[in-house]
């Protein structure tokens, strides 16, 4: 990374600060499209990873569709300029009213439970055309909290409920135009995707007239030095060959395969810049206390996630062991006993791989303001979200 540029950005916009590099987003999108160039694949950006409107517009210009999980995300996508047919709405445990609202907006509906599917079918009949989300009972993902396709998951319709699903379709006349599956996040083993798609091929036999199958995502990106990501190029070749054979046998050579990458597209593009408030020595530990916490980046505390931390004020300094902690009145440890170039008070630290589920999961806990966001790339750095002011904490409160 360009240490001088990032130090300049920190000086100009202050810290804590999220910075995103549009060139990395474009690089990741190109990797996907090239990897799956052997078949008719479409990519819908999972905007729950990072929903800043400027990021959405970058993905739209690159050619992506949008994967949404709430009516708010649908509205953001439409505001960003996505056409309704290029948005898929995959909610979980929402009301029928929210799904009907999304239908009125013209987006693709992905239904993940039998109760809502039956209610929708009885209400709309054959005028409704939806995708259904299948739970394959596969345990996959970086850890249990981000595994969504196992037997006890709240997501999807069990593969063992196919007879019930078929009865609903037959009795209501609702049309199934796509089938969907998402087993989890941070999946390294390509065999998990191949196993999942084989299950979808079996499910597809129950539904004539399918337009697409959707494998969700779960592509892993590297975090630690020496870490590996999902071998996208290898997976693209394997899945493309498999899917081309399947759709010919199914009888629809124009069928598409859809994916919903989020973290893969934006994680490596993002950086969180923080300032060191204090160096604190105890009997066994040297703490570097920074002006952020899990109110800005919760992944290390929630998922035990690893983020590389670099001292960009002193990148060539001698390495020492630090436990990096935040300023929140809870245990908000970013890293234990991490080797980092010598940290001094007021030094700027950079958290790498902070583009996905960083700002998006931030909060105002301890009445702390959310940070600003800046975009870099081919043009000069520009602000894409203002830093909150303490008065923003009062904005929605009713004061007598």
3D structure, described in words:
The protein is α/β, with parallel strands linked by helices and 400 residues long. It has two domains: 3-18 and 267-390, Lyase, Ornithine Decarboxylase, Chain A, domain 1, CATH 2.40.37; 22-264, Alpha-Beta Barrel (TIM Barrel), CATH 3.20.20.10. The protein has eleven helices and 18 strands.
Percent strand: 15-25%
Structural class: alpha/beta
| Share of helix, binned | 25-40%
Shape by Cα distribution = globular
Query: What fold name stands as the CATH topology of the largest domain?
Result: TIM Barrel
Number of helices: 11
Domain count: the total is 2
| Poorly predicted sequence stretches spanning 5 or more consecutive residues | 139-150
Largest sheet, strands/sense/barrel: 9 strands, mixed
Please identify which CATH superfamily of the largest domain we are dealing with: Alanine racemase
In short:
The chain is an alpha/beta fold and 400 residues long.
Looking at this protein, list some descriptive labels.
400 residues; alpha/beta; Lyase, Ornithine Decarboxylase, Chain A, domain 1; TIM Barrel; 2 domains; 9-stranded mixed β-sheet; 11 helices; 30% helix; globular
């Amino acid at each position: 990374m360009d240490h001088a540029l990032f130090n300049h950005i920190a000086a100009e916009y202050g810290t804590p600060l999220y910075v995103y590099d549009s060139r990395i987003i474009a690089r990741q999108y190109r990797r996907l499209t090239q990897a799956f160039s052997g078949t008719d694949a479409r990519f819908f950006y999972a905007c729950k990873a990072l929903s800043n409107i400027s990021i959405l517009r970058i993905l739209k210009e690159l050619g992506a569709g949008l994967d949404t999980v709430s009516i708010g995300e649908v509205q953001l996508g439409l505001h960003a300029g996505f056409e309704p047919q290029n948005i898929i709405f995959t909610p979980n445990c929402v009301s029928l009213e929210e799904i009907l609202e999304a239908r009125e907006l013209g987006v693709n509906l992905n239904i993940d439970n039998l109760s809502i599917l039956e209610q929708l079918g009885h209400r709309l009949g054959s005028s409704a055309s939806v995708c259904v989300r299948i739970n394959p009972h596969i345990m996959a993902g970086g850890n249990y909290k981000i595994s969504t396709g196992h037997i006890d998951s709240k997501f999807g319709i069990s593969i063992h409920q196919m007879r019930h699903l078929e009865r609903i379709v037959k009795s209501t006349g609702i049309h199934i135009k796509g089938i969907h599956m998402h087993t989890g996040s941070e999946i390294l083993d390509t065999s998990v995707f191949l196993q999942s798609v084989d299950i979808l091929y079996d499910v597809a036999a129950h539904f004539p007239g399918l337009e697409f199958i959707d494998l969700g995502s779960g592509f892993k990106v590297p975090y630690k030095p020496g870490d590996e990501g999902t071998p996208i190029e290898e997976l693209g070749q394997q899945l493309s060959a498999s899917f081309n054979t399947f759709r010919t046998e199914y009888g629809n050579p124009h069928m598409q395969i859809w994916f919903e990458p989020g973290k893969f597209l934006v994680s490596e593009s993002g950086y969180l810049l923080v300032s060191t408030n204090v160096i604190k020595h105890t009997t066994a530990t040297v703490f570097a206390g920074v002006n952020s916490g899990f109110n800005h980046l919760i992944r290390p505390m929630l998922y035990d996630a690893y983020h590389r931390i670099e001292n960009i004020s002193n990148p060539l300094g001698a390495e020492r062991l630090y436990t990096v902690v935040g300023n929140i009145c809870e245990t908000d440890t970013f890293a234990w006993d991490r080797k980092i170039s010598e940290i001094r008070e007021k030094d700027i630290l950079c958290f790498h791989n902070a583009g996905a589920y960083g700002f998006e999961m931030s909060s105002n806990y301890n009445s702390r303001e959310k940070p600003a966001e800046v975009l870099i790339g081919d043009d000069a750095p520009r602000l894409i979200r203002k830093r909150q002011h303490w008065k923003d904490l009062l904005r929605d409160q009713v004061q007598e």
